[in-house]
Design a protein that fits this description.
- It contains nine helices and seven strands, in the order H-H-H-E-H-E-H-E-H-E-H-E-H-H-E-E.
- By secondary structure, the chain is of the alpha/beta class.
- The protein has a single domain, classed as Rossmann fold (3-Layer(aba) Sandwich).
- Strands 3-2-1-4-5-7-6 form a seven-stranded mixed β-sheet, with helices on both faces.
- Helix 1 runs parallel beside helix 3.
């Protein structure tokens, strides 16, 4: 808990309430595996909280496929300057997220039920986050249209992060992304450090070859 106190600071009591809610309702509703309850802090909460190191101040953030709120709710707890939208298509998960937001008294969070492709015309965010949602090739297709030019996708990834970047190269090229890089955050706070794929958006994608523009 010493590391948790360092990472969350004055927000630690809120993080503790969230951890209790995850271990109880999160497990009961199948959002967190039963075996995860005993390792919520190092494997989930701190692992997600250190993503804040890569998020600019006062950013508008969309957490894609938010699930149990990882990392979106954790970022909202540790960084009250952020405006967070938790985007989740499943009703039972959005119900859980709404309950968590109310329980924790978070005023910087909006829960939105839907898929990325359904809200693309409404969003122009600074940052998109995602954890265990999809390979980068698919995730980029969903996330990049939600970002303003110069906005960033911060995807939490594991050992295959570099391979996913290579596999996603054609999609990233079509979107004309500015940069793609691997980052490690949480050095000395979580082991291993959290790996992020950071993709900086440039512009809207070119239509795929042979595709037709659909009328609205």
């Amino acid at each position: 808990m010493g590391i948790a106190r360092e990472v969350f600071g004055d927000a630690l009591p809120i993080a503790e309430r969230y951890a209790e809610f995850l271990a109880d309702a999160g497990v009961e509703r199948g959002l967190i595996g039963p075996r995860e309850a005993d390792r919520l802090w190092e494997r989930h909460l701190i692992n997600c909280a250190v993503v804040a190191e890569a998020v600019p101040e006062n950013a508008r953030v969309v957490d894609i496929g938010s699930g149990a709120g990882l990392p979106g709710l954790v970022l909202a707890i540790v960084r009250p300057d952020l405006s967070i939208t938790l985007l989740e298509p499943l009703l039972r998960r959005t119900n859980f997220l709404n309950e968590a937001v109310e329980l924790l008294g978070l005023r910087n969070v909006e829960v939105r039920r839907g898929r990325a492709e359904e809200v693309v015309k409404e969003f122009s965010m600074d940052v998109a986050t995602a954890r265990a949602v999809a390979p980068l090739e698919r995730l980029a297709r969903w996330a990049l249209p939600l970002l303003r030019p110069g906005g960033e996708l911060l995807a939490m990834k594991g050992e295959r992060a570099a391979a996913e970047i290579e596999e996603a190269a054609p999609v990233l090229k079509r979107f004309g992304v500015r940069t793609t890089e691997l980052l490690q955050v949480g050095q000395g706070k979580v082991e291993p450090p959290t790996t992020l794929v950071r993709v900086v958006a440039e512009r809207a994608p070119r239509p795929a070859k042979g595709s037709k523009k659909r009328s609205s």
